Amino acid sequence: MAATLPATGSAAAVADPQRLTVDLDSSEGPVMLGANGSLYGLSDDGVPSDAVMEPLKITSVSQKPEGGAQHPNGDALTVSRSFFRTGGGEINVMMQDIYAKWPYEDLGIDDYLPKVDKIVKEISADPNSDRFVYIPFNEPDQIWYKLDVKDPAQYEKNRDRFFQDWKTVYRRIRAIDPDARIAGPNEAAYHTRLLRDFLAFAQRENVLPQVMTWHELGSGSLRDFQAHYDDYRRLEREAGIAPLKINIDEYANRRDLSVPGQLVQWVSMFERNKVYANMAYWDAAGNLSGQMVRTNVPNGGWWLFRWYAGLTGNTVKVTPPRPNTVDTLQGLASLDTSRRQAQVLLGGADGDADVVVRNVPRSAFGRTVTATVAEAAWSGYEGQHAAPRVLARTKVTIAQDGSATVPLRGLHKMSAYRIVLTPGGSGTPSAVSVPWSASYEAEDAAITDGKVYTQGTVSNANGYAASGTKDVGSLNQPGSQVAFTVDVPKDGTYDLAILYGNQSGGPATQRLTVDGADPVTVTYASTENWTYRAKKDVGHRLTAGTHQVVLAKGDAEVTLDRIDLTARTGAPCASYEATLADISGRPSYDYTSSAGVGTGALVLRPGDKAVFDVYAPRDGYYTVTPRTSASVKLALHGGTVTAAPGRPLRLYLVAGNNRVAMTSGHAAVRSLDVTGDGSAAGTLSYEGASATLAGGAKLVDSPHASAGSFIGELGNSPSSTAEFTVNAPRPGRYVLVVHYAHNDRRDNGHAYNTDIMSRTADITVGSAAPRKVTFKNTWSEDDYWTVGVPVDLVKGTNKVTFGNATAWAPDIDRIELGRVVG
């Protein structure tokens, strides 16, 4: 079987295929999911949304102490509410982030100790105190103590001061919280000299941390980490210390974050060594270190971590073509004999590869396997990514030596790939239809009044990721434009995806012209900066053959990276396979038949549940069809509906990820199929001008609002409210979609952090209690995002009131309501 990936504008690979070998008979132990953490990945309760956090099964995050001055949000106790309710593991508390300056102001240990007392008292009083880990010092090799100094005498002096302070703070924490777990020493980089001395001292003084931490932030960490890990374990053995839990609580560079093909290299080495790891915080809080868009929308990086969270059973040995080498094909794999599934995640290289899976257990899989290959592509830090496309699903005969080979052709370096092996069963899987697609780099196009810039590379690892490491910026002159020459195979409508950046301060436009025809205006939402890549999707009708696609300057500057053209083959659709869904209870797996779509069936009985992560490109109605043998119940947005086998339902989905739970008395489930692009037919829509305003809230004119005005100056007083009168044709559970904007920030003086802030609003529906909802910063006051809130409406008149007695609520453009079951 050859999984041939969509063509790109680059030259085809000519080298022999690389070989990545998976040995299913060489277990590395249970899947740990340690590498999915994030530093300041959460900013507020509700940012990110529960629906994007829960599927990732996040094992650890690192946040600041409550009220810490280092950043305006990300307080550990505040974000713990959403983290723990979505199944999160533990929270590392970066205790020195109580300070405002970076590097931390060194006011001496006597200044620090009262702050330590306050932090520990607050955390130890929390009902979930056992799920917090104290990190007393952050990067002491560089900050306060200069432990990386080369001069031996100066090192010993600095070391002894640090060790004394470590002992003092350690004992102070334990005096208040005797069961506290403490982590350290938490260097900015790995130092054998320091760790040897630290282990000896900590063991002698009985102040050994429960978790060993350091950072891997060098451009060579993908090469060097294995040696660091092996050296550290050697130091433990020499000191007679039992192996400590390790958390690499900052890892990866800017160029890695959001890029599935980069991140799979990091994840594979951490999971292989069974260490925990949190991605670094280089930009804004609240987006899982660049793995999600807005509040609830997945990007390509999110889907990689969703795949990672789907690994079950034991990880097994993977031998890449070039171990411990930067920017090369790497992977990780798992075997779950109870589910009869093997999974391989890989990526990091262009070209061709053969994935050889050895020692496929015949007792679990039989004589054939169904191999399903899917791709999670790079969509930018803020570029939405639909459910990963299945590229191939084919039955493979297991060779006499017990191996199965899956050839992959035309790999993309920035993408990650998943191979799922399940028993072949009878029948033939349906052929996968992959639409024609091609990519064109902006730097290779005809550029007028613009400049090519080189972005994130190995030598500039903290530059931002860019397709092909280059983009085209400075498109700020009246004649600035980028002209792409494209070639399409047949007449039809094509989806044009534009990877861009917009730091102009508000929505920006370009003029899209095809073959000199009348231009079409393309509007780009704001992004964090010129290189924090987002994606704009537009459609265009093209005839077969060559065309010139020109993007020219509109009313503001935009940076261009790449365009992708994909043939539109009908309404967007996705099939979510039941055998890969999250489960609870004890459902069984039936691979008797591999015919049709899907790798088999999940058999649900009373007490069993399957949860599907369903992507929606926008808020609206979609057709959802359960492929089941009997009726099932679907739960969504707090509502439930009974679904007959194969019978389409019209359900309201919010933009981004939607968790749909399925239960049944007894049903074999193959998939949950979703089609559509978010119909607004049947929704209720109310502009801001229709609301009754009080207490200073007022309508503000804006050309960017949907009807020319928005509700501003709302909140910051108990009397400041906006009340909408909603007329519901039927009672039941609805989704209230709020179109809002705000751009609150607090500059803490960190050159590499964008300290955005969220706002909240108390929303009251009828006589129900107010509900506090968090609204993330939208990058400008003129960009409107959406947040969906499940509410219950009675038939007829309902009052929906927005307010905030103590702080400003977001500006509100309009609201929409859709009944969950349309």
What would you note in describing this structure?
The structure is a single chain. The chain is mainly beta and 822 residues long. It has nine helices and 53 strands. It has a ten-stranded mixed sheet with strand order 1-19-16-2-13-14-15-20-17-18. Strand 49 (759-765) and strand 50 form a beta hairpin. Helix 5 (192-204) runs parallel beside helix 6 (221-239). The longest helix is centred in the first third of the chain and has 25 residues, at 152-176. The chain starts with a strand and ends with a strand. Residues 4-13 have low confidence and may be disordered.
Q: State mean pLDDT (0 to 100 scale).
A: 96
Helix content: 10-25%
Radius of gyration over all CA atoms, rounded: 27 Å
| Total beta strand runs | 53
SS class = mainly beta
Uncertain residue ranges: 4-13
* Gap from first CA to last CA: 42 Å
Number of DSSP helical runs: 9
Strand content: 35-45%
Largest sheet features: 10 strands, mixed
Strand order of the largest sheet: 1-19-16-2-13-14-15-20-17-18
- Label the overall shape: globular
